[in-house]
Amino acid sequence: MKVWIVSLFAMLAAFTGSPALAAGGGIHLVASPDTVLAETAALLKGLGFLLGAHGKGIDAGRIAGWTR
Questions:
Q1: Which helix (H) or strand (E) holds 51?
Q2: CA gap 37, 18 in Å, rounded
Q3: If you write DSSP's letter for every residue of 7-49 in order, what string do you get?
Q4: pTM (2 d.p.)
Q5: How do the domains of the chain map onto residue ranges?
Q6: How many Cβ atoms sit within 10 Å of the Cβ of residue 42?
Q7: Mind listing the pLDDT tens digit for each residue in 21-44?
């Protein structure tokens, strides 16, 4: 199961040749299993900015080591 943000970032990286630097909006991981949270957390580790982390995106951010 891929979360839209993971798929989108992979597609953008393939198109531009560069990783994403920021994300905005809800990540919507409420019904996602821990494996999806871990995959999303790995993606978030490379971001400089995350805006509007609702819908359990904050949990993936915490797994990525973010604090408030």
A1: strand 49-51
A2: 23
A3: HHHHHHHHHHSS---EEES----TT--HHHHHHHHHHHTT-SE
A4: 0.56
A5: 4-63
A6: 13
A7: 887 766 777 777 888 888 888 877
